[in-house]
Design a protein that fits this description.
The protein has about 240 residues and is mainly beta. Helices cover about 15% and strands about 35% of the residues. The protein has a ten-stranded antiparallel β-sheet with strand order 1-3-4-5-2-7-10-9-8-6, with helices on one face. It is globular, with a radius of gyration of 17 Å.
């Protein structure tokens, strides 16, 4: 099976004040690896974007041993899992250039019509990605159970957060969470991330954010009339 591989040198723009890879940048790297590998597999924009359909993330999971740091050379790998009808699972791993395991992740993607925003049948557009198992996968993301929240604030989606799909990019939700929840600014180390995206957030839309913390786990959700996202972040201090 085809496994995407990319070598990356982390620069100052990629890390936070603790010189660790930003959570939002990590998920941007995973997203971009997915797109580039899909293109390598012959399922690029001529099959999707140019025909009015979009790749959209629905769920993500990441288990972190150690977040890579400034000036490190890392290796990012990604490969498709076995398709589940309308859903496209994808797996990821990241390690140092010397082979030290850093993290593993998984995600579920689907295709939606750019106008109706409804999920489409991939075979209608000739989209087919053969997946397999390598034995290196972590479990796929699961739905996140809603928790009671103690904190709230409002947030308006700015222009810089919106991507070519016309909605707030998935990676920016992690900036939003870490700007609201004190754990990241306090230097606590992230060990588990679970996220799900159920509705889009568009330019200028106001979201009500709700969050709480219990022991090492932080939960956040946000939306307007409908919930747009839920997220679970686990730290170990």
């Amino acid at each position: 099976m085809s496994v995407y591989r990319e070598e990356i040198h982390l620069r100052a723009k990629d890390v936070d004040l603790y010189r660790r890879l930003r959570t939002s940048e990590l998920f941007r790297l995973l997203q971009e690896a997915s797109i580039r590998h899909t293109e390598q597999l012959g399922m690029g924009r001529d099959k999707t974007l140019d025909k009015g359909i979009l790749w959209v993330l629905t769920q993500q999971r990441c288990e972190i041993r150690r977040m890579p740091e400034y000036d490190e050379h890392i290796v990012l790998k990604s490969w498709p899992g076995r398709n589940m009808h309308l859903l496209f699972p994808r797996h990821y791993s990241m390690e140092t250039a010397e082979g030290e395991p850093l993290l593993k992740a998984s995600a579920i993607w689907c295709l939606v019509d750019a106008k109706s925003r409804k999920v489409v049948f991939p075979e209608k557009y000739g989209v087919q990605i053969d997946g397999a198992e390598t034995g290196e996968e972590i479990e796929l993301p699961r739905p996140i159970r809603r928790l009671d929240c103690t904190e709230t604030r409002d947030f308006t989606v700015p222009y810089s957060y919106v991507d070519l799909n016309g909605h707030m990019n998935n990676a920016r939700y992690f900036d939003l969470a870490e700007d609201s929840i004190p754990a990241a600014a306090a230097g606590e180390k992230l060990r588990l991330v679970c996220a799900e995206y159920s509705n889009e957030a568009h330019l200028g839309e106001q979201l009500r954010l709700r969050w709480s913390r219990e022991d090492r786990r932080c939960y956040m959700e946000g939306g307007a009339e409908k919930t747009c996202f839920r997220m679970l972040l686990e730290y170990n201090g």
